[in-house]
């Protein structure tokens, strides 16, 4: 398949009126259309991407739901609907996210097991991202109080089994007793350790300098902050050049001034754009309604979903493609960098070195996007078209 005529976005530049040739599920060639199109196999299917951006498919590695689907009550059908909804926004890979509820994790495991049989979903739904239960009560945010626990290797292993060994990442507070042992166990179990929902002081974090793999869960949210006298996790993350930091650019979770601080101080190669979206994301507010999250009523205001009684922010109504669009339009981030923050960077963060860029030899995960990143008219995952409105 040849995707031709659009502006092809590479990690370091844009090829105007370029083309991407996909063969056997891989990117075979990338370059100006006249050069790449001159050497295509007989019978090659051609997609006209003129006036569009041709990007690597986007990733969202921190998402609780969208399009009316919630990870809290996930089924295989719901997972398929979520995947289809995200495909229309250019999102190929996603990491369904939830709290450490045994019931929710059990349902998630069953949904993912069913997804293994669906060709359009089996390698897109990457596992489960779990927030808690080993987090600081003062920084729990929307995590229910009743699921919080002190770090316990035994309980960690129990959660892993309940989740069908599908936990891919877990957020924990590094200042809690036993957190170092927990970190080691996460790594040994093949789970990405993420520091978050934490009240850590700078001195609590010294053992994590230059440690890999390691992530920061939604930078600035649910963590000790930036101070000239009592620096916390956010300040440590800003200063650390190697750790991957999730960043929510929805304009609600993080003030634009703080987003700007992160963009100016962090290496762009270590920023991972996420949505932290919940089920109303992508729907008209009048259609999405109110509803409940973790058994508590929620309301929608602007781009956020909040607990009705406390006003605590639970999640976003914006999706990751909108975050990428804001990086370009509101923060003047170069287009290749903004795209990489939601494709190459999360792929590298999760150790998927064959994904996340339109480079020869990489998996052919390709999205044809409108220039404002509002929608996607073609999405291929590993060379297989899974969403298409372009002719």
Structural commentary:
The protein has 2 domains: 2-55 and 356-388, Urease, subunit C, domain 1; 58-349, TIM Barrel (Alpha-Beta Barrel). A hairpin with a 2-residue loop joins strand 2 and strand 3. Strands 1, 2, 3, 4, 5, 20, 21 and 22 form an 8-stranded mixed sheet that branches. It has helices at 33-36, 76-87, 102-115, 153-162, 179-188, 233-239, 256-265, 285-288, 320-329, 335-340, 344-349, and strands spanning 2-9, 14-23, 26-32, 46-48, 53-56, 58-63, 65-66, 69-70, 91-99, 128-131, 167-172, 192-195, 215-216, 244-248, 271-274, 292-293, 296-301, 304-307, 313-316, 366-369, 376-381, 384-388. Helix 2 (76-87) crosses helix 3 (102-115). It starts with a strand and ends with a strand. The protein has 11 helices and 22 strands. The chain is 24% helix and 27% strand. By secondary structure, it is an alpha/beta fold.
Topology:
Layout: E1 2-9, E2 14-23, E3 26-32, H1 33-36, E4 46-48, E5 53-56, E6 58-63, E7 65-66, E8 69-70, H2 76-87, E9 91-99, H3 102-115, E10 128-131, H4 153-162, E11 167-172, H5 179-188, E12 192-195, E13 215-216, H6 233-239, E14 244-248, H7 256-265, E15 271-274, H8 285-288, E16 292-293, E17 296-301, E18 304-307, E19 313-316, H9 320-329, H10 335-340, H11 344-349, E20 366-369, E21 376-381, E22 384-388
Parallel strand pairs: 1-4, 1-5, 6-9, 9-10, 10-11, 11-12, 12-13, 13-14, 14-15
Antiparallel strand pairs: 1-2, 2-3, 5-20, 7-8, 16-17, 17-18, 18-19, 20-21, 21-22
Helix pairs in contact: 2-3
């Amino acid at each position: 398949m040849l995707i031709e005529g659009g502006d092809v976005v590479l990690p370091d530049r844009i090829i105007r009126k370029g083309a991407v040739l996909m063969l056997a599920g891989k990117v075979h060639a990338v370059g100006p259309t006249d050069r790449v199109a001159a050497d295509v196999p007989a019978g090659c299917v051609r997609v006209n991407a003129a006036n569009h951006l041709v990007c690597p498919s986007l990733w969202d590695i921190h998402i609780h739901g969208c399009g009316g689907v919630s990870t809290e009550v996930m089924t295989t059908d719901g997972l398929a609907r979520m995947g289809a909804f995200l495909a229309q926004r250019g999102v190929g890979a996603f990491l369904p996210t939830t709290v450490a509820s045994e019931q929710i994790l059990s349902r998630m495991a069953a949904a993912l097991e069913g997804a293994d049989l669906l060709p359009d979903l089996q390698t897109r739904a990457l596992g489960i991202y779990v927030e808690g239960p080993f987090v600081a009560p003062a920084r729990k945010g929307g995590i229910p109080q009743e699921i919080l626990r002190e770090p316990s290797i035994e309980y960690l292993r129990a959660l892993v089994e309940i989740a069908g060994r599908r936990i891919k990442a877990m957020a924990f507070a590094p200042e809690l007793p036993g957190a170092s042992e927990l970190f080691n166990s996460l790594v040994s179990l093949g789970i990405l350790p993420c520091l978050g929902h934490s009240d850590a002081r700078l001195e609590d974090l010294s053992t994590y300098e230059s440690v890999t793999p390691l992530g920061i869960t939604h930078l600035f949210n649910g963590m000790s902050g930036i101070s000239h006298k009592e620096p916390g996790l956010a300040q440590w993350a800003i200063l650390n050049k190697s750790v991957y930091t999730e960043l929510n650019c929805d304009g609600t979770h993080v003030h634009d001034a703080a987003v700007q601080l992160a963009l100016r101080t962090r290496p762009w190669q270590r920023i991972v754009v996420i949505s932290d979206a919940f089920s109303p994301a992508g729907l008209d507010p009048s259609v999405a309604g109110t509803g409940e999250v973790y058994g508590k009523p929620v309301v929608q205001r602007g781009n956020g979903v909040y607990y009705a009684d406390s006003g605590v922010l639970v999640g976003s109504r914006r999706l990751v493609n909108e975050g990428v669009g804001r990086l370009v339009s509101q923060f003047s981030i170069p287009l290749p960098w903004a795209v990489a923050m939601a494709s190459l960077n999360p792929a590298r963060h999760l150790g998927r070195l064959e994904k996340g860029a339109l480079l020869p030899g990489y998996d052919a995960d390709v999205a044809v996007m409108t220039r404002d990143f509002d929608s996607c008219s073609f999405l291929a995952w590993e060379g297989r078209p899974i969403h298409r409105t372009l002719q």
